[in-house]
Amino acid sequence: MTNAPQDYPDARGGCQCGAIRFFIAAGPAKAGLCHCRMCQRATGNAFAPLLEVPAARVSWEGVAPSEWASSNISQRGFCPTCGTPLYLRTDDTFEFMAGCLSPDVPFLPQDQGGMEARKSWLDALPSLPAHTTRPELLAVVVSHQSKED
């Protein structure tokens, strides 16, 4: 990502099942979207919203993340219990998936990369009808996800 770092407050996050929790100390961070094919595959989605922070500001609780070398320059971290994709790691940085961050983290993307692989159907999103989850569905769903955030 090429955006300039912005100051972020302390942040927390983790995986779906709660086996992995992380803490990011306050300081400069870079938020952006990556549309590259590697990120599409790693997230199972059209793009990856990523918050890049220095590794020295990250601490972990719970089980250790599993990692897979998705390239010669980076590792992809995920929960070995529930499979949640957590981050892209290089030698000195973590780029956390925005969906793993607590909802109170002010994720503010400043740029987009990997545009050569961007899905063209994303252009239609602003014109699609939007709705909240149906209350009758929410009434019967029992989540097995961590309640921490």
From TrEMBL:
<keyword id="KW-0456">Lyase</keyword>
<dbReference type="Pfam" id="PF04828">
    <property type="entry name" value="GFA"/>
</dbReference>
<feature type="domain" description="CENP-V/GFA">
    <location>
        <begin position="11"/>
        <end position="111"/>
    </location>
</feature>
<comment type="similarity">
    <text>Belongs to the Gfa family.</text>
</comment>
<dbReference type="InterPro" id="IPR011057">
    <property type="entry name" value="Mss4-like_sf"/>
</dbReference>
<protein>
    <submittedName>
        <fullName>Aldehyde-activating protein</fullName>
    </submittedName>
</protein>
<keyword id="KW-0862">Zinc</keyword>
<keyword id="KW-0479">Metal-binding</keyword>
<dbReference type="InterPro" id="IPR006913">
    <property type="entry name" value="CENP-V/GFA"/>
</dbReference>
